[in-house]
Amino acid sequence: MRSSFLTLVALTGHHTLTHAADISNLASTLQTLSTSIFPPLQSIATSVWSHPEIGLDEHYAHDLVIDYFTNTLPNVWDTITPQAFGLDTAWRLEFSTPSSTSSGDGDLPVIGFLAEYDALVGIGHACGHNQILLTALTAASLTRQALLDLGIPGRVVVLGTPDEENAAGKCLLRSQSGGAAYEGVDVWMMAHPTNANAVQPMNARVNAITDFRGASHEEAVRRAYGAMVAVRDLVTQGGLPGTSSSVVAVEEVGMFECNIVQGQISLGIRGVELDVVKQTVDGLLGGDDGTYPGVSFTAVADKDGKGVNVTALGPGGHASESTKGPLVLTVETFRALSGQDGVEFYLPGNTTLAELGVVFDIRSRYTQDLDLVLETVEAAIKGSSGGDSADITITTDTVYPALEVTPFLPDLFTSLLATPEYGSQTDFPISTFAPASTDAGCVQQAVVDPDSRKLVGSEKVVFHPNYNICDAANSGGKCAFNHEPGFATAAGTDYAYQRTEVIARALADVAVRLLNDPAVMANATAILA
Ligand SMILES: *[C@@H]1O[C@H](CO)[C@@H](O)[C@H](O)[C@H]1NC(C)=O
Ligand SMILES: *[C@@H]1O[C@H](CO)[C@@H](O)[C@H](O)[C@H]1NC(C)=O
Ligand SMILES: *[C@@H]1O[C@H](CO)[C@@H](O)[C@H](O)[C@H]1NC(C)=O
Questions:
Q1: For ligand 2, is residue 254 a contact (CB within 6 Å)?
Q2: What is the CATH number of domain 2-200+403-524?
Q3: Which of 58, 69, 211, 449 could pair with 89 as two cysteines, CB 3.0-4.6 Å apart?
Q4: Residues 299-358: pLDDT tens digits?
Q5: Contacts for 334-340 with beta carbons within 8 Å, 24 or more apart?
């Protein structure tokens, strides 16, 4: 570090102990820099938004970034690494100032920015990762230029991380590189677009992936729905262990796959009159059983299936995890009617399939509770099938560890946002509610006290604020949540890009403060073991 400098300054009797540059005009300097730096980077993000690619297939986004900094705007980054750490769509950019110091780059303070750019099957950038790419490129480029302009020594790294949604790309980068992907950088920053502002923790996550088979289509559907009823009972009867644990079923039909909020679900019912079906579903929707916010249904005679096609519409999955979405309405409809003799269930338009895949998306506030939640859900699924549980195979995917809020940076960031240069945003709370999951937990590697659940250490500092990109005033107050199709639209609006510019600029402001003053860096990294 620069301790020799500190000693020298201290000995010569200056009032300040640090050799920090004067950054009193930093916010306006960054504003000026952004007017030229941001627009071309926004064009990259817009192209990525228009060419959505799913995880591990982000070749267009990868090539766009590499090509831009290799050919269009060369000589910005000292090193540009395509296909970094053996992953085809990972990349890394690095810059140091001064680029050659006598003491070597190893002594320079370092800041890293994490980029994401994967989309969701069928619904494009419905998690807004085009904006995460833009945040990383903008914040890093602004930080770099500010270091140069203000004469602050430091190093900036940008890491392009593939597949946040499904394969836990940041975990993959860690294992693939033997940890090297995050080495040498103590503080990593990023920001995630959503429909509310907050610095908040993120849940641990794992998917239990099941495939229900039967001798007939109807039997497979009955088994799948039976399991979803059993898992719903866990939720409604408070049977999930851990803190704020949740489990949401995702039925693998149509374009809906794991991770995509299911806005429309159809269930076919045979052996019950149309009127009775309508009354039953109506009763569930309006019943004192709780609410289904924004959910509606249609029930029509289905000539092909010789039954009734009940279709529920509305926000689903994690958009309504604490309430009830369309799939829950069909699950409760199944529960209400399945006891009657001669009643059969099927998927309208799909009556020949003899298997039905369901993914149970399991989340819990703390990583250490996830195994127990998973076991509880697995037991309910197996128990739902009576003696046939041997037929059910349940596999799991990569665990996303919880992301904890590290102290210090949230206060610095939100206090900057409250100033005029960042739009005087006073509505940016630091909250304890975890709205979703992120693979950035694999970068942080938080250590939480088993009893108090307090953060006691971590391998890296990861700062990951969530920010609103929905222009509520101009969307009739309706803002889609991440993984709903409507969120892809929000992620491509001018409003979203303006929001990202401000957030990225504020992250750059934080980064420059960290690089400029060892005391600030020491506070930000105090949590590291
Ligand atoms: C029927 O199932 C197949 C395979 O899961 C799926 O691709 C298709 O979209 C489904 N169709 C409907 C109408 O659910
Ligand atoms: C079932 O009804 C929904 C809503 O009306 C419709 O979108 C869907 O195509 C229907 N399915 C079949 C197979 O007719
Ligand atoms: C670092 O943290 C200490 C203790 O909270 C505080 O007194 C000090 O002002 C902080 N320094 C900087 C530069 O942020």
A1: no
A2: 3.40.630.10
A3: 58
A4: 999 999 999 999 999 887 665 566 788 999 999 999 999 999 999 999 999 888 899 999
A5: 334/225, 334/226, 334/228, 334/229, 334/267, 335/229, 335/232, 336/280, 336/283, 336/284, 337/269, 337/272, 337/277, 337/280, 338/222, 338/225, 338/226, 338/229, 340/271, 340/272
